[in-house]
Amino acid sequence: MDPIQQLTQLMGYPAVSGRSQQAVQIAQAIQANQITRQEAAELLEDLKTQNQIEGQANTLQEHLAFDQAVSGLIMLVSATA
Amino acid sequence: MSKILSILLVTSTVAGCAWITPTAPFDSAEYNTINRIYTDAEWYKAECDDQIKTKQNFFNLERETRLLVNYSKDLPNNDSTIVMTQNLDKVVGEAYKAYQNNETRTKFYCTLKLNAIEEAAGTIKSAVAQRRRP
């Protein structure tokens, strides 16, 4: 599944909702040239790290799905850089 | 027979308890440092337009985060916090290096990076605040 589509679906899960919105916001910022691809890739990695910090206290399925979706998005961002 | 059962029960209970790792109690110095990082990240967002102030702000955040990592790792039974603070350091460290090397960063990057730091520090802050008081 397309990572952005997957992230949009994950917005429905409170545990990862905020971070999923941020990931989509970053993807949109690339399209609008508000941010460089290098910055975007770093910020997406940050979202994964934030996810790990939360997962440290509470390992939920949504955390794993979020990690997978953002990894896909990072690959897309890096491939088109 | 009941004596044997009692011995088995006691032995298995003691062995079972050995698997439970105690967690470090609430530490006010640790909490204060995390709270300072959280509050600074929230505060510094208003200065993302100013590159010079932003460079100094990320220097301050990196110094505070290193202080936290170095303090937390010396507290006994503090493994989960150590992992969390090291992850926070990863988030802060990249921006710190970029600004110290005078690399160009957009305002959007600054704001989102500070959001990430605020959220990560907020998660750690809440986890630490819920610890039992010594």
Describe this structure in words.
The complex is a heterodimer of chains A (81) and B (134). Chain A has 81 residues and is an all-alpha fold. The relative contact order of chain A is 0.20. Helix content of chain A is 78%, strand content 0%. Chain A has helices at 3-10, 17-31, 37-57, 61-79. With 134 residues, chain B is mainly alpha-helical. Chain B contains five helices and no strands. In chain B, helix 2 packs antiparallel against helix 3. The radius of gyration of chain B is 21 Å and the shape is elongated. Mean pLDDT of chain B is 87; it is low at 14-20. The A-B interface holds A 18-19, 22, 25-26, 29, 34-36, 39, 42-43, 46-47, 49-50, 52-54, 56-57 and B 80, 83-84, 87-88, 90-91, 94, 105-106, 108-109, 112-113, 115-116, 119-120, 123-124, 127.
Task: Write the SSE topology.
The complex is a heterodimer of chains A (81) and B (134).
Chain A (H helix, E strand, L loop, with lengths): L2 H8 L6 H15 L5 H21 L3 H19 L2
Helix pairs in contact in A: 1-2, 1-4, 2-3, 2-4, 3-4
Chain B lengths: L1 H16 L10 H17 L6 H22 L6 H22 L6 H23 L5
Labels describing this entry:
heterodimer; A: 81 residues; mainly alpha; 4 helices; 78% helix; B: 134 residues; 75% helix; 0% strand
Largest sheet of chain B: none
Number of helices of chain B: 5
**In total, how many beta strands of chain A?**
0
Shape of chain A: globular
First-to-last CA distance of chain A: 21 Å
Could you tell me the mean pLDDT of chain A?
A: 84
pLDDT average of chain B, as an integer? Answer: 87
Summarize the structure.
The complex is a heterodimer of chains A (81) and B (134). By secondary structure, chain A is mainly α.
